[in-house]
Amino acid sequence: MSLVVLMLLLGCGEPPPTWHDDIQPIVATNCGACHVQGGAAPFALETYDETLAVGELAYASMAAGTMPPWPADPDCREFYGQLVLEPEEIEAFRAWLDADAPLGASSGEPVAPPVIGTIEPTHTDTVPGYVSTAVTEDEYRCFVLDTEFPETMYLEATHVVAGAPQVHHVLVYAIGEDAIGPVLAADAAEEGPGYSCFGNPLPNANFVSLDTVERGFPNQIGAWVPGQAPAVQAPGDAIRVEAGSTVVLQVHYSALAGDPAPDETEYQMILSTVEPTRLVRTVPLLIPELSIHAGSEVSVRHLFGNHGRNDVTITSMTPHMHLLASKQQVDVVRADETRECGLDVPEWDFDWQMSYLLDPEAPIVLAPGDGLELTCVFDNTAENQPFVDGEQVEPRYVEWGDGSLDEMCMVYLSTVEPFTPLPDASEKPCAGTEQCVADCGDSPTADCLLQCPEADAACAVCMLDEGYSCGFTPCALGFSLDESCITTCLISTLMFGGSTGQCLADQCAEQYDPFVQCAEDKISSGECNSAMNRCGWEL
Fold first, then answer.
1. Which of 528, 451, 455 is nearest to 494 (CA)?
2. Mind spelling out the 3-state secondary structure of 460-510?
3. Over the stretch 460-500, which tens digit does the pLDDT of each residue have?
4. Contact 414, 495 (CB under 8 A)
5. Which of 126, 258, 292, 508 lies most in the core, judged by the most C-beta atoms within 10 Å?
6. Which domain holds residue 256?
7. Are residues 311 and 412 in the same domain?
8. Do residues 456 and 512 share a domain?
9. How far is 466 from 475, CA to CA, in rounded Å?
10. Across the strands, what pairs with 185?
11. Do residue 136 and residue 248 come from a single domain?
12. Tens-place pLDDT, residues 144-174
């Protein structure tokens, strides 16, 4: 006889929780989106018998915070639609088990599980029947879908309908014409549908190169985990998908979620040719300089500032790291140096990569001068190594890379901004800088030009590339204007807008100041006018 029941017989304490009155509503509300017959979870929790059969396992998962899956710390920030059990709900489940799981008297209809919802898609693509090889280890595979974009379109809503029990999570990208070549080559090189991919959909992509930063990152247009409702943009908002783009679906197949079966996962889209009022952009902030020595625990941190003239409105965050990661945190740092927690994932789990949606009425707004500080922590000790072919690997030196044994530190941010049309393909990167040239006077300096508000990431890269041809190279080499510093500021200005030069002056002053002093003569003498004009400066 349990202690709780003995106390009740002696007239002590409150009556224990019962299935009908207390436990079924908790389970249905928090677990019912996945743990139903035919749902995404491997077993159902719809009935008393089903729940009691796994009662201790369910409680252990609740107490550990692994179920329902919500890795973010709710004490940091409340997100839209979050699934977090209250402590008293977990205590009630424990008390119910300790009291020998009383059924109680049914007083009406049971609480219904959440309704996932649907959309009426204008376009649908399907994974072509791929059978996963995930038997003892998980598999990550990318599929090139068929939807064509002969013209630029606007994505208003998406939904993923898992087509096999092993589908664990899905990320969706629109790859532009200038980056699709390696994807198509990888797809053709492997037998059967799709190609192997882990960290990102671009095979052997170097996210930290100037070329990649200038060209832009893959346009993330969707994400899904079990139980996730359709992603519907607010009225007037949409994601721009440029003409010629190709949709690539990245699927994580779990070896623990059932037997392999042909996968016919659907990706549903509501696409329109009508220009929206606001554009939704999803771009990663990332820290590319990773140096994780064997046996060590390493923390990397960087502040990405809003160096533009406008507010930046953030509507969601999707962190991404690999298997050695142990924690990620995003802090909002205001211009007056006050701080607030943006996102805290205290125990990183690669298997549960979530998109965290901010309340539409309470987005994170970064004013000019504000920023986001990204922190990633990695555990490269022997105890935290992944298993390969059934054996735990030995610790090794790890850097940035897209392989399963490499690492990444990034968070995808979705922002909304007023609609602007795409620039003409023939327009030069620094077009629109006429006022800056006038403001800089008859003898413009490199510093004045680089800090022009219109000198965005593409303009800065063009200016530096062309400037090297007219004598900037000795300046950069002599004063160690290294690529990592440039890349970090390019990432900031790609994400938040504003002047790359202003970011360099603020965050890389020890390198930037000598560089612009060295380049002064080249600019003021007119030696670089032709090179700068190729970028659109019209000096």
1. 455
2. HHHHHHHHHHHHHHHHHHHCCCCHHHHHHHHHHHHHHCECHHHHHHHHCHH
3. 778 777 877 777 766 765 555 556 677 778 888 888 888 88
4. no
5. 292
6. 116-276
7. yes
8. yes
9. 13
10. none
11. yes
12. 999 989 999 999 999 999 998 889 889 999 9
